[in-house]
Amino acid sequence: MGRPPYEPTAQGRRQVEALAGYGVPHHMIARIIGVAELTLRKYYDDQLKDGEAKATAKVAQTLFQRATEGRELAACIFWLKARAGWREKQPVDPATMPTLEQLLSQSQQRITVVAGIPIATEAHAIDAATDAEARAQT
User: The whole model's pTM is what?
Assistant: First the structure.
C-alpha cells in the first residue's frame, strides 16, 4: 500500500502565496511546508505565481506613489529608468567624436608649464597670476 495522496490546506495555500511573495525560493518553500518541490508545484502552482505577482504589484504601487509624490528622488529616478527608458548617459555618435590626437592637442594647449612641470590650466594660471599680483601690492 502506497502513501496517501497529498491534500493541500487553505492555510498551506496562504503560506505558500506569502512565502512566494517574499521571494523565498521554491525549494525552500517546499521544505518549510514539508513536501517535495514537485508536489509543491503540482498543488500550489497558482499560489506560487499569485504570490510573486501580488508582491511585484505592491512594490510597483509603492514605488509609483513615492515617485509621483516626489518623496523619494531615488524612486523617481528608478521609475524613469525602468519604465520611461531614461539613461544616465546619452548615446554617442562615433562620427562626431574627436580623435585621440585632437583631445591630446587640446589638453596640451590648456596646460601652463613652469620649469618643465605642468601646473595648471590657462584659467587657473590667470587666477594664480592675479593672486600673485594682489599679494605683491599688499
Answer: 0.56
Interacting residues of 79 by C-beta distance below 8 A, sequence separation 6+? 63, 64, 67
Which residue would you say has higher pLDDT here, 32 or 101?
32
Q: Assign 3-state DSSP to the chain and report helix, strand, coil percentages, each to 5.
A: 70, 5, 25
Cα end-to-end span (Å), the chain: 107
Query: What are the extents of the domains in the chain?
Result: 10-84, 97-137
Kindly report, residue by residue over 58-105, the tens digit of the pLDDT: 988 988 898 888 788 888 888 888 888 888 877 777 788 777 777 777
Q: How confident is the model at residue 36, as a pLDDT? A: 96
Q: Is residue 39 a contact partner of residue 32, using CB atoms and an 8 Å limit?
A: no
- The dihedral through the CA atoms of 3, 9, 12, 16 has a sign that is positive
Give the residue among 41, 92, 57, 91 at the shortest CA–CA distance from 29: 41
Task: Collect all residues with Cβ–Cβ distance below 8 Å to 35 and sequence separation of at least 6.
Answer: 6, 43
